[in-house]
Amino acid sequence: QVGDILADWFFQPSAAVGGDAFGYQHIDDNHFALYLMDVSGHGAAAALHTVSVMNLLRHRALPDTDFRQPSQVIASLNNMFQMEDHGGMFFTMWYGVFNKASRSLTYSSAGQHPAFVVPKDKSHSIALGTKGLMVGALPDYQFQSAAVTMPADSHIYLFSDGVFEISTRQGLQWRLADFLPSLLEPAVNGVGEGQRLNDAVRAVANPGPLEDDFSMLVVTFL
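Below the sequence we write its predicted structure tokens.
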């Protein structure tokens, strides 16, 4: 917990080395960033690609970029990591910035399914996503951004597709809509939200390792 922001996360890698990563950090006293990326494919090359991107984000090392503007951040990464220059690899991404003073969350996504906001009473979820190509597909692509006001004690769930793209014990293939009701289930005492959701997915999925990384970041804005 950092002041009035609480972060909980859970990461369970799949059997193969993957390219999932997520992070969060203060940009300044009033702005807090959270993000998730997923590099195409598996193996050492995907993992190294992820490390390169995450280092730039952690150190805010992108030139001529306002890290309080999510669409700028993704656009800068897109121009720096064109797939034709990086072995055909691309990545999807969601990047958001919370303004503490206004309680506004500005966000942008690139080929990534939405993040979801859930109020304190867990009565419903709201999808936060913008249309956009994956990072690396087209140079000088203009990414869109949007904004939403975050109610007090609301949660935002940011996760990779490995969370919901599972095969069930009944032989069914889950999609995002199959997973979303799990977000609205009650909290479990002594168990973090990320762990709770992993347990819920594992209870439905085939035994053994999941097919892809399980990456989940839950941030609560008190």
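The mean pLDDT is 94.
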